[in-house]
UniProtKB/TrEMBL annotation:
<feature type="compositionally biased region" description="Basic residues">
    <location>
        <begin position="149"/>
        <end position="163"/>
    </location>
</feature>
<dbReference type="InterPro" id="IPR036882">
    <property type="entry name" value="Alba-like_dom_sf"/>
</dbReference>
<feature type="region of interest" description="Disordered">
    <location>
        <begin position="141"/>
        <end position="163"/>
    </location>
</feature>
<dbReference type="InterPro" id="IPR014612">
    <property type="entry name" value="Pop7/Rpp20"/>
</dbReference>
<dbReference type="GO" id="GO:0000172">
    <property type="term" value="C:ribonuclease MRP complex"/>
</dbReference>
<protein>
    <submittedName>
        <fullName>Ribonucleases P/MRP protein subunit pop7</fullName>
    </submittedName>
</protein>
<dbReference type="GO" id="GO:0003676">
    <property type="term" value="F:nucleic acid binding"/>
</dbReference>
<dbReference type="Pfam" id="PF12328">
    <property type="entry name" value="Rpp20"/>
</dbReference>
<dbReference type="GO" id="GO:0005655">
    <property type="term" value="C:nucleolar ribonuclease P complex"/>
</dbReference>
<keyword id="KW-0819">tRNA processing</keyword>
<keyword id="KW-0539">Nucleus</keyword>
<dbReference type="GO" id="GO:0001682">
    <property type="term" value="P:tRNA 5'-leader removal"/>
</dbReference>
Amino acid sequence: MTKTSPNEELDRPDCKRAKIFKDVALIRKRAPLRPATTYSDIYVTKTSSYKGQLVRAKKLLLQDGRSSISIRAMGAAIERAVSLAMSISAACSNQVRCQTETYTVDLVDDVIPLDTEKDFDVNCRQNSAIHIRVELTQPMPRATISRDTRKRMKSNKRSLTHH
């Protein structure tokens, strides 16, 4: 299923897919378009800190009182996003419901020829993406957070504010 806007044909350039050799042109990948971001959105990439995202997700659900969070990923990071959702479920004693939506996104690359006589070109491609909505089925009691975890979170907060 591809998410499209009503004016998609007007929004994106005429795309073509051709083999591009490295000695002929440079390829610059444009940043993908993202939906409007909220505080409870977590974007997973191959280079993002898995442990940091897990701590942030637990904090949003257990401490900040959020009833749901959204995990989003594209391409090779989809596996990490699913793993993150499963880890959150285990951390919340399986008291969460995960709703998963997969879709395809259109990506645009700029083709910059090394020969200055030639014009710039655009290359379009598609990539898989996932959106996982993690919702608490019932409010978690605050007692599920251990004292050691609370102390670590407080000390982390203090260390962040002093730097």
